[in-house]
Structure formats: structure tokens, C-alpha cells
Amino acid sequence: HLRGFKNPNRDPFTVVNVEALNAFAAGTTVTPDALRSAGLVKKKGRVKVLGEGDLSTSLTVQVHACSASAREKIEAAGGTVSVLD
After folding, report:
1. pTM for this one?
2. Which one of 6, 49, 51, 70 is most buried, by most CB atoms within 10 A?
3. How do the residues of the chain divide into helix, strand and coil, expressed in percent and rounded to 5?
4. Helices (H), the chain
5. pLDDT digits (tens, 9 = 90+) for 9-65
């Protein structure tokens, strides 16, 4: 039996690490739908990119949230990050 407060407004993120984005060809625009169709994201909802691993391709990444380290790695690889609402 679980006890305690459960926030009914919690908006969970589905998490993807930067290194998983290497699955996409250079120059690709990576959206939450593209991540789902590639099988990298299983659940519906908002997607957040975390900075685990390295990225070697230049991508345009459009996600709901992005950690600072992930943004640095994507931009260092020559890509861009835009945050969706």
C-alpha cells in the first residue's frame, strides 16, 4: 500500500539520452514523433533529452525539455535545440 501525497498535476517526461540521437542521419529534424517512430520513446507525452553519452551528428532537435549538458552536446555537434510548449 503506497502512502503519501501524489501530485495530480504532475507532468512526467519521457527521457531520451543524447547518445540515442546518433540513430538519426545528420541534418535530421528530431521531434517527439520521430523519436517514437524510431522506437526510442515508448510512451506518449512530453519528451526530455538528457546529456548521457556523446553525439556525433548535427541535428535539429525539437523537444519539450532539454538538460543544459544535452543542449551543449547537441550544439557542440553543430546542431540546434528548440523547446516546444
Report:
1. 0.85
2. 49
3. 25, 25, 50
4. 32-37, 68-76
5. 888 899 999 999 999 999 999 999 999 999 999 888 899 999 999 999 999 999 999
